[in-house]
Amino acid sequence: MYSPKSMKAEEFINDKEIKETLKYADENKDNIKLVNDIIKKAKLRKGLNHREASVLLACGNKEKINEIYELAEQIKKDFYGNRIVMFAPLYLSNYCVNGCLYCPYHFKNIKIPRKKLTQEEIKKEVIALQDMGHKRLAVEAGEDPINNPIEYILESIKTIYSIKHKNGAIRRVNVNIAATTVENYKKLKEVGIGTYILFQETYDKVSYERLHPTGPKHDYIYHTEAMDRAMEGGIDDVGIGVLFGLDKYRYEFTGLLMHAEHLEAVHGVGPHTISVPRVKKANDIDPTEFDNSLSDEMFCKIVALIRIAVPYTGMIISTRENQEIREKIIKLGISQISGGSRTSVGGYTLKERPHDTEQFDVSDNRTLDEVVNWLMKSGYIPSFCTACYREGRTGDRFMALCKSGQIQNCCHPNAIMTLKEYLVDYASEDTKKIGNELIEKEIENIGKDSIKDLVREQLSKIENGTRDLYF
Ligand code: SAM
After folding, report:
1. Which H/E stretch holds residue 173?
2. Over the stretch 109-145, which tens digit does the pLDDT of each residue have?
3. Which of 178-192, 251-265, 289-303 has the lowest mean pLDDT?
4. For ligand 1, atom 1, which residue shows the shortest CA distance?
5. Which atom belonging to ligand 1 lies closest to the Cα atom of 241?
6. Which atom of ligand 1 is nearest to the CA of 96?
7. In this structure, which residue's CA is closest to atom 13 in ligand 1?
8. C-alpha–C-alpha distance, residues 133 and 127, integer Å
């Protein structure tokens, strides 16, 4: 039986409800009155439920699709302004005991060299990331209780936070590791992680079990209920996502929204972020083996629909996507992107991009400076802000500020100030020039004169060497 409030995976992600939703969407995809009503509801900026959003996904009417795109762009502007938060992944270890068919880390892959960073190596990677200008990382690791036990992850996070190289600092460490116990989530919370990220990969239980034939990740229920355990362990910012291409995208889209609805219904706060990775070529992995790949056009539509269905949830895109696609979807709803990423264990300390231990082929190979430069030329403010969770603006507190629009009062000045830090410490001359012009323009967009003056004051402090100023 379907119940968003249930704590049982198969009741909050209910196969029958998803199938009925898809049937309902098929029956109503040409029902223009209903489609109009749903779009009208989305314009209230309070979101849509999985049934409503699924009707819009099925709808093929060009005019309505354009309306959805326009609305997504508008909602993106209203909630996130022109800010794009920057981050980089840090791969700690590719040892893994799971048998995931799409992932090069699967334990049977003898073609991939196995590597686990020592604390000394982590230090070097972090210094390399700091020297690029990064302030926010997503720690990634395979699942291996012997090689990568929770103690190793915790120690690594402490190491990352402890390194202060020149003006560098990693101020927020998000974590993407396998589903674990409430006890372990408590420990992650204690070492001060930002968001706990875990992709569902696929919400379809049958496909899930086929795609994860062996290892602890095979357990669909344990994996699907992970976010509830994370929240029970005190982590109130969680990031969900599916790996698009593994299973039918309409099923996944509905499941993803049902998961968000469940978290909101049970914990009073939905996911902090939603990621939209697509399966990529990798060592021992041929993505064409998965016949559910998603066209670029449908991918854009999904991003736009997630944007209007959960307006207050951040959306993340990685360097799995190339510049062209990133450009399109940033406009439609993405609020966080990675830049200068290396998806191999120990990749940041090497001069040339290594491919041997990579988790997936990177499609956007530009440096962080190039990505920052490009974003600014496209009218965005690259933000290195990490203030919210350090100020306790997490979980329902963050969502309340977000829903009321008040969050803008912090985010916009913080984006300007952290960009200024980046420009002073790390940017190339050209990026600096474009950035300083952008900052001048953006200060004028601050409503209150008193805040404008305060930001100017903080900017001159940054010029004079003060760091880590935020509201
Ligand atoms: N090991 C952790 C787990 O099992 O959830 C998470 C870390 S894994 C390094 C991060 C994510 O990379 C996975 O959740 C999966 O969605 C994604 N991934 C795996 N193989 C991929 C591929 N071939 N192309 C794109 N993304 C992939």
Report:
1. strand 172-176
2. 999 999 999 999 999 999 999 999 999 999 999 999 9
3. 289-303
4. 142
5. 16
6. 1
7. 199
8. 10
